[in-house]
């Protein structure tokens, strides 16, 4: 794939500050917001707290995610990611750093997170939408051409 297909230029669209609903799943909520606001491409960050979470760690040899269950309240120290299209739908890719009551942190690919409170900055990006396609090298769906 030519390198230029991996580097797209966007204009800034809406810049939104959003409070997520208590008890919602943070990934489902971000996906729903992207759909409702018709945001095909964007980036986001958030801080807050989760009552539980599921982190993923991608095994680069087996090409599958291992899961790490976090069954306790944690600070959402950092949550960042992006929105692009996968299988014709908005897809939220997010990573998070979580801290427990002792300040110890865990991090990874965030698969689920039950929102205690979360404040999101969502930046819409306007331009030719990014589309995720299967990448045989990594086994992941990465930005490419359909
Ligand atoms: Zn990830």
Q: How would you describe the overall organization of this protein?
A:
The protein has 146 residues and is mostly beta strands. It has a single domain, classed as 60s Ribosomal Protein L30, Chain: A, CATH 3.30.1330.80. It is built from one helix and eight strands; from the N terminus they run βαβββββββ. The protein has one helix spanning 26-36; strands spanning 11-19, 42-59, 64-70, 74-86, 89-99, 105-126, 131-135, 140-144. Strands 1, 2, 3, 4, 5, 6, 7 and 8 form an eight-stranded mixed sheet that branches. Strand 4 and strand 5 (89-99) form a beta hairpin. The chain is globular, with a radius of gyration of 16 Å. The model has no long low-confidence stretch (mean pLDDT 95). Zinc ion binds next to strand 5. The site of zinc ion has 3 residues, from strand 5.
Low-confidence stretches: none
> Which architecture name does CATH use?
2-Layer Sandwich
CATH superfamily: Hypothetical protein, similar to alpha- acetolactate decarboxylase, domain 2
CATH class: Alpha Beta
Structural class estimated from helices and strands: mainly beta
Give the beta-strand count: 8
Quote the average pLDDT: 95
**Strand portion:** over 45%
Bound molecules: zinc ion
Number of helices: 1
Give the overall silhouette. globular
Largest sheet: 8 strands, mixed
Number of domains: 1
Q: What gap, in angstroms, lies between the N and C termini?
A: 12 Å
Write the layout of secondary structure elements.
Blueprint: E1 11-19, H1 26-36, E2 42-59, E3 64-70, E4 74-86, E5 89-99, E6 105-126, E7 131-135, E8 140-144
Parallel strand pairs: 4-7
Antiparallel strand pairs: 1-6, 2-3, 2-4, 2-6, 4-5, 5-6, 7-8
């Amino acid at each position: 794939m030519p390198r230029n297909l991996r580097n797209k230029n966007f204009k800034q669209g809406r810049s939104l500050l959003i409070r997520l609903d208590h008890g919602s799943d943070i990934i489902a909520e971000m996906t729903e917001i992207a759909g409702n606001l018709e945001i095909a491409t964007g980036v986001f960050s958030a801080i807050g707290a989760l009552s539980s979470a599921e982190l993923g760690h991608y095994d680069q040899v087996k090409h599958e995610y291992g899961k790490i269950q976090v069954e306790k309240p944690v600070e959402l120290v950092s949550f960042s990611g992006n929105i692009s299209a996968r299988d014709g739908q908005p897809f939220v890719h997010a990573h998070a750093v979580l801290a427990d009551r002792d300040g110890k942190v865990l991090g990874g690919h965030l698969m689920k997170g039950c929102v205690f409170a979360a404040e999101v900055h969502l930046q819409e990006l306007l331009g030719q939408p990014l589309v995720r396609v299967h990448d045989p090298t990594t086994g992941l769906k990465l930005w490419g051409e359909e």
